[in-house]
Amino acid sequence: MKTSRRSALKTAAAFASASVLTASKIRAAEAGDHYVAKNGRINQSFVTWNFRPLTIPDLAKLAVKFGVKSIELVGPEHWPMLKELGLKCAIAGSHGFAKGFAQPDQHAECLKVLEQRIEQCAAHGVPTVISFSGFRKGLTMDDATKNTIAGLKKIAPFAEKHKVTVALEMLNSKVNVEMKGHPDYFCDDMDLSVRILKEVSSPYVKVLFDIYHVQIMHGDVISRLRQYKDYIAHYHTAGNPGRAEIDDTQEINYPPIMRAIAETKYTGFVGQEFIPVQPDKVKSINESVRICDV
Amino acid sequence: MNPLLSRRSTIARAAVVIATTAALGHRLAAADAAAKLKINHSACKWCYAKIPLDDLCAAGKQFGLQSVELLEPSDFATVKKHGLHCAMVSFPQRNGIGTISKAFNRLEHHDTLVEIYSERIKQCADAGFKQLICFSGNRAGLDDETGLKNCATGLKRILPLAEKSGITLVMELLNSRVNHKDYQCDKSAWGVALCKAIGSERFKLLYDIYHMQIMEGDVITTIQRDHQYFAHYHTGGVPGRNEIDDTQELNYPAIMRAIQATGYRGYVGQEFIPKRDDKIASLKQGVQICTI
């Protein structure tokens, strides 16, 4: 009991100090000396899990401050707050990446979550919802491909009816570090993703082009996003290697990639999904906004 | 004044001086080591086809170019005249054998290759140049496993002479998606497997950053993991193989820092095709971008 209480106190203290730290950093950013997106060629958005301990409301305030228009992959319970701040949710979360359409016995569960989320998206003007293939678990490529096509075909009419796009995310299967890669994830290839989408053949089923994952699996980012522009519903960012800041400490030169995205006439959003390693996360977030505001 | 205190303080001061000197010594040694590991700059001659080699050498020296590469032996005297190195000597060929598409992956090319590479190795050794490029050739229906075996068989016939002469044979990794359709040595994993099959310090790979970004991406991780098999690096903007500046998707300074951190002591060869009119200015910019 004693230990438990002590550890609870410790956690509370750590939490308090983290919030104080965060609050002071947010205030520092609010005090000026920060970059505000102004060019309007790329609509930016913040993913939230990667910026913890910043909270969703913290990030929403920063978005407003930095000229960013969306907070994404957050549940419907946050959408009224976003709306109040004049923000969008560019893409809604749904079932997690561990389950998906590669596995027939997971179809029913994924469809149930997606249908409910699509209805909510339609009601709140959220244009896109995420989906995943899940893991391969020993299936042949052929079988996993067929299963994924079959699953997405089941949700396509519902997505079309509600005019909400389902975005299948491609993830890297090479990096064996938690939340930096997903070994055995089935849909780890952009060519494969687009082959699947061509079979599903719905304007409301597309791919989430995560620049970090694509760089790890394939490279040739600009050529690929030009080649597949008609199939891309959303973009994510992060530095490589490491999924950290998108600045010049890593190999992906983001400004020309953003210009290439703008040149494809893309009107959707680019979600910042890097995990800051610098102590001042707010500064890193602001810097990412500047880098992508081409 | 307490003499003891005074003495103590003198000792303390002396200790500080000694410690400072030692620290300074360390710092100087570290700075020296870092200076030795600066990226050495080279440029590929073919990217400046309309500029006489003499002019390219003279201009390059002004901004720190230390080598012009992919030279034929007939060019050696020119770079030497300027006090420049040739970090990678061009390939020999006879009736098309030895070129990118027709090389070591075919057994029927080996007799010719042994002959022409033996001669070229001697020319390199005589000139004091240490690295000589070579290619796998195109697949032309050959599977990767057989292609690898054939390359190893052919290269092993030449390596005794290369080892004796202190010349490294360096097989280039090229992209087969855009520029060299069907080229076999198009993935770093295949090249590394070939290095392991051969097992000689005198056979390594040319990791062309442009080509490998097109084929596989994940540049820094690959360099960190496999650098012991990479004897040379090339640059180029992606997409398009033009200037390596902010018009393309690779962040070259970060990649150069990763190369430097591996302890690399070789050269980085600029191998982009300048798009702008002032090609020498583009080369200068490339060298500056890779100066870290």
Describe the overall structure:
The complex is a heterodimer of chains A (294) and B (292). Chain A is an alpha/beta fold. Chain A has helices at 2-30, 56-66, 79-84, 107-124, 141-162, 190-200, 211-217, 221-227, 254-263, 281-292; strands at residues 43-47, 70-72, 128-131, 165-169, 205-210, 232-237, 269-272. Chain A is built from ten helices and seven strands. Chain A has a seven-stranded parallel sheet. Chain A is globular, with a radius of gyration of 19 Å. The model of chain A is unreliable at 1-17 (pLDDT under 50). With 292 residues, chain B is an alpha/beta fold. Chain B folds into two domains: 1-36; 39-289, Divalent-metal-dependent TIM barrel enzymes (TIM Barrel, Alpha-Beta Barrel). Helices cover 47% and strands 11% of the residues of chain B. Chain B is built from ten helices and seven strands. The longest helix of chain B is centred in the N-terminal third of the chain and has 34 residues, at 3-36. The radius of gyration of chain B is 23 Å and the shape is globular. Chain B starts with a helix and ends with a helix.
Largest sheet of chain A: 7 strands, parallel
Report the CATH architecture of the largest domain in chain B. Alpha-Beta Barrel
Say how many strands of chain B there are. 7
Q: What is the strand content of chain A?
A: 5-15%
How many alpha or pi helices of chain A? 10
Rg on CA atoms of chain B, Å: 23 Å
Distance between the termini of chain A: 56 Å
Q: Assembly type of the shown chains?
A: heterodimer
Give a short account of the largest sheet of chain B: 7 strands, parallel
Q: Which chain pair has the greatest contact?
A: A-B, 23 and 25 residues
DSSP summary, beta strand count of chain A: 7
The CATH class label of the largest domain in chain B is: Alpha Beta
How far apart, in Å, are the first and last alpha carbons of chain B? 54 Å
Please give the domain count of chain A: 2
- Number of separate structural domains of chain B: 2
Q: Which structural class should the secondary elements of chain B be placed in?
A: alpha/beta
User: Would you give the CATH topology of the largest domain in chain A?
Assistant: TIM Barrel
Physical arrangement of strands within the biggest beta sheet of chain B: 2-1-7-6-5-4-3
Q: State the secondary-structure class of chain A.
A: alpha/beta
